[in-house]
Specification:
The chain has 4 helices and 11 strands; from the N terminus they run ααββββββαββββαβ. The chain has 209 residues and is of the alpha+beta class.
């Protein structure tokens, strides 16, 4: 029983900490909205607080997937001798710690299973990372393409990070992606990441339902 109550107390404490962190983020300044970010992506650029983002479509995984990304995000080359380079990609913004990882997995996944898949992946991450708190879950429907998202705060030492995990089905296999950034960037990158996720374009003739 002692272990049970210790876990409950820890859960409550983490919940309080998460609420406090979110309140502090909200109080910092007026944040971007999803609508503003979507409009900026459509126009090809977005300006906010002296920062300018310019967008272009990246076509990935042998043409199976397209996504709009800021030009400031650069593909990180993989080391020599690595295999299946086209199956796992990592992008990093030049002047910050913002990262995007995408993995076209061997795991078979129809569009109808993306939500449960993200729930299972989130549970795995939560089990591996102490103090992780899930903030939001969402299912996005785009022209027959389903994208499931899970957002969480991860405390690491004296900092906290925000992560947006998302998944869809590409050519009948799971496409798992993740935006990862410091909590100080949440006012910009939380809505911006969601806008970019909504630009995902999957080859229609390859979609499994």
């Amino acid at each position: 029983m002692t272990i049970y109550w210790d876990e409950k107390i820890l859960d409550v404490w983490n919940s309080i900490q998460t609420q406090r962190q979110l309140a502090e983020m909200e109080e910092q300044q007026v944040h971007l909205t999803l609508a503003e970010c979507l409009d900026g992506v459509r126009k090809g650029y977005l300006e906010y607080e002296g920062r300018r983002f310019e967008f272009a479509e990246s076509v990935l995984f042998d043409g199976k997937l397209g996504i709009q990304l800021p030009r400031s995000m650069q593909l990180i080359p993989r080391g020599r001798g690595s295999t299946h380079q086209h199956e796992q990609l990592t992008y990093k913004e030049e002047d910050s710690a913002v990262m995007l990882g995408m993995n076209h997995m061997a795991h078979l996944l129809p569009m109808s299973g993306v939500e449960s898949f993200v729930q299972a992946m989130t549970a795995q991450v939560k089990k591996a990372q102490a103090g992780l708190q899930v903030v939001h879950n969402e299912l996005i429907e785009l022209d027959g393409c389903r994208i499931a998202c899970s957002e969480f705060i991860i405390p690491i030492e004296d900092k906290s990070y925000y992560q947006i995990l998302f998944a869809t089905s590409v050519n009948g296999r799971a496409l798992l992606g993740s935006f990862h950034f410091e909590s100080e960037e949440v006012l910009v990158w939380q809505p911006l990441a969601h806008a970019l996720i909504r630009t995902l374009r999957v080859e229609q003739n390859l979609i499994m339902t």
